[in-house]
Amino acid sequence: MAAQVSANHDPRPQAPGSPWASGGMLFAGLILVINGVFSILLGMMGLAHNSVYHHVPNYYFRFSLTAWGWIELVIGILLAATGIAVLAKASWGRPAAILMASIAMFMGLLIVPYYPVWAVAQLTLDFFVIGALVLAD
Q1: Cα distance between residue 98 and residue 32, in whole Å
Q2: Beta-carbon contacts of residue 9 (< 8 Å; ≥ 6 apart)
Q3: Where are the alpha helices (DSSP H) in the chain?
Q4: Are the beta carbons of 97 and 133 closer than 8 angstroms?
């Protein structure tokens, strides 16, 4: 008798994905979600209180606290959404996450005078997130 192949069995060998790439995608998605939640919280604090950010005299990129709060809130929601899309392996997740991590890096540059340690940490994590997303299979 001839052996029958079930409909669910694919006889072609599957190339295993790189554990570094899948781990990098997990890292990128989680960092984007965490960064998004922090940005949402910062935005809500900026909208609720007028003393969240320290006063830096003669800073060129100074915004009103309400505008900064709304910007942080919107960016945070988009960061969290793209992080969830990366974790869910959505087809649009990687390009959108690279764009959002780039925007988060720009936002990190804007807050350097206010919170230098947090800004450098955010810039570093966003750099590794972009690297993980670009190098993933």
Answers
A1: 10
A2: none
A3: 19-48, 65-87, 93-110, 116-135
A4: yes
pLDDT in tens, 94-106: 999 999 999 999 9
Predicted confidence (pLDDT) per residue in 24-42, tens digit: 889 999 999 999 999 999 8
- Determine how many CB atoms are found less than 10 A away from the CB of residue 130: 19
- The pLDDT tens digits of the residues spanning 4-19 come to 555 555 555 444 555 5
Contacts of residue 94, defined as CB under 8 A and 6 or more positions apart, other chains included, come to 86, 133, 136
Closest residue by Cα to residue 24 from 14, 34, 32, 12 = 32
